[in-house]
Amino acid sequence: MSKSPQSFLLFPPGSVLGILGDGQLGRMTALAAARLGYRTHVFGTSAEAPAAQVTNALTCAAFEDREALARFAEAVDVVTLEWENVPTDSLAFLAERVPVRPGASVLRVAQDRREEKTFAASCGVPTTDWESVNNAQELDAALVRLGRPAVLKTPRLGYDGKGQVFIGPTKAAEEAWQALGSSEGILEAFVDFACEVSVIVARREDGVMAAYPPVRNIHRNHILATTHVPSGLPPEVEAEADAVARRLAERLDVVGLLAVEMFVLKAPDSEGRRVRMNEIAPRPHNSGHWTIDACACSQFEQLVRAVCGLPLGETVPHHDAVMENLLGEDANGWATLLQDPSACLHLYGKTDVRAGRKMGHVTHLAPRLSGGPFLLGEAKA
Ligand code: AMP
Known about the structure:
Elements: E1 16-20, H1 24-35, E2 39-44, E3 57-60, H2 66-75, E4 78-81, H3 88-95, H4 104-110, H5 113-122, E5 130-133, H6 136-146, E6 150-153, E7 164-167, H7 173-180, E8 185-189, E9 193-203, E10 209-211, E11 215-220, E12 223-229, H8 235-252, E13 256-265, E14 275-281, H9 291-294, H10 299-308, E15 319-327, H11 334-337, E16 344-347, E17 358-367
Parallel strand pairs: 1-2, 1-4, 2-3
Antiparallel strand pairs: 5-8, 6-7, 6-8, 9-10, 9-11, 9-13, 11-12, 12-15, 13-14, 15-17, 16-17
């Protein structure tokens, strides 16, 4: 019997949560689901993947495999995802058989930077200036309008700085276009930001929302290096970031989580605004890993609660926190990291070590002071 996708159902503990994607976000979602008494069924591509190692059941197949998707739908009560690039056709196919949260309409926006920015504008949320460019001539013309420096990006499937070309004062449009190596692009005006923040908001099907506080993110080589809580930003900037995230979650009608990455300008614009949306992700986010150790309810548990219709958990942290990503060989330093008895170490079970690959993270906690940002290392400067 097919399960109605329309119904406002509660999925109680004991239900089977289907998770599309088998990376570390799926792993931590499955662990949080298990804590609440749920069973999980991961749909991914490898039996060795981080989430495959901790789930009750596993389907290894391509996301386009309709037979595998149909079997998966039969085996689970509700579906969520840890990767926003699941084909929307596959999501729609699943949604005919089982509730899928978030749904295909949300992914259609989140999969394409042009759609994201157009959607943000329709909600009155500012982004940096941008233009669609589909060849070197269009790029050249757009550079005249937007100015330099600028950032050329692939509209789809870019992450951690992949699919991005920085265009400084002298780089030729032709050279930048060749470096992108894509048939379509988006040119963004460079934002000379004061800092980067993100907000993760959870939303249930009935519209109830809960947001974690804005956190400050420091990137190295376009990859998130550390997340700092509290952000140390003035309350009015935090309120602006929070309002942007809530508005987007509501207007997108997200059920689950929405992570919103934003730039904070050095000075307010002509309308008094300090925040520019950069991108959104309708899933758990790297900048929310600190919530596992510093909140009563982590972003992963919050996702399970939102998707299953349970009451949402506390989002006010009980500690200040710094989360440091462990990239590539960093994770081999686990023995040293564990010398600090209060370090909260998380390793994702990946065996293939590659430079820049997210292998784990470590969270350091401090009693809430909350006067300023809790910074480590280079971020202290
Ligand atoms: P993204 O994949 O868009 O999140 O970009 C990764 C990182 O590159 C961001 O977190 C920023 O640190 C930097 N970046 C991306 N786009 C811009 C921009 N338009 N202006 C300034 N920095 C940017």
